[in-house]
Amino acid sequence: MKALVTVHYKQGILDPQGKAVQNALKSLGVDGVSEARVGRHIVLQFPEMSKSDAEAQTKKACEKILANPVIEDYEYEMVENTA
Amino acid sequence: MKALVTVHYKQGILDPQGKAVQNALKSLGVDGVSEARVGRHIVLQFPEMSKSDAEAQTKKACEKILANPVIEDYEYEMVENTA
């Protein structure tokens, strides 16, 4: 079992890295981007664990270390390892 | 149209942030994580653009600025804005 976690600033929190990307894209000739937001993507591998157990551990991981709950939101998705 | 881009180190490249997360999780009591990898998740908003145009711009953005092709791989997914 594998957890795919994405962490982004909450809506309304200034995202300076996103702003920098947006400005850089404009000056590099990538057109039409009205907003860019940059966050983190974390992949956790849980070999030999049931989906519900892995999900509980993922939630704990998000709350303890992967996201700052004051300014960030997280989402996660559990997927089977295919390979 | 919205592009969801994920950027991770290529397989085989040492991911120090991932290692740090893995060690921290273990000492915080989150069990069963055999590997953690940390990458970036970027959301680009393309209002008023067709899917194929937005996809072309996203590819250009990934190659020019969002990923370092020497050590990183990127993936992207185009989704309709729902709200």
How would you characterize the overall build of this protein?
2 copies of one chain form a homodimer. Chain A has 83 residues and is an alpha+beta fold. The first copy, chain A, has a single domain (2-79), classed as 2-Layer Sandwich (Mth169, Chain: A), CATH 3.30.1280.10. Chain A is built from 2 helices and 3 strands. The first copy, chain A, has helices at residues 16-27, 51-66, and strands at 2-9, 35-45, 72-79. Chain A has a 3-stranded antiparallel beta sheet with strand order 2-1-3. Chain A is elongated and about 50 Å long. The mean pLDDT of chain A is 94. Strand 2 (35-45) of chain A pairs antiparallel with strand 2 of chain B, so a sheet runs across the interface.
Provide tags for this entry.
34% helix; alpha+beta; 3 strands; 83 residues; 2 helices; homodimer; 3-stranded antiparallel β-sheet; Mth169, Chain: A
As a percent range, the share of strand residues of chain A is 25-35%
Tell me the series of helices and strands of chain A, N- to C-terminal.
Answer: EHEHE
Annotated CATH homologous superfamily of chain A: Phosphoribosylformylglycinamidine synthase subunit PurS
Which overall shape of chain A is indicated by the principal axes computed on the Cα atoms?
A: elongated
Strand order of the biggest β-sheet of chain A: 2-1-3
**Biggest protein-protein interface?**
A-B, 37 and 37 residues
**Into which percent range does the helicity of residues of chain A fall?**
25-40%
Instruction: Please tell me the total number of domains of chain A.
Output: 1
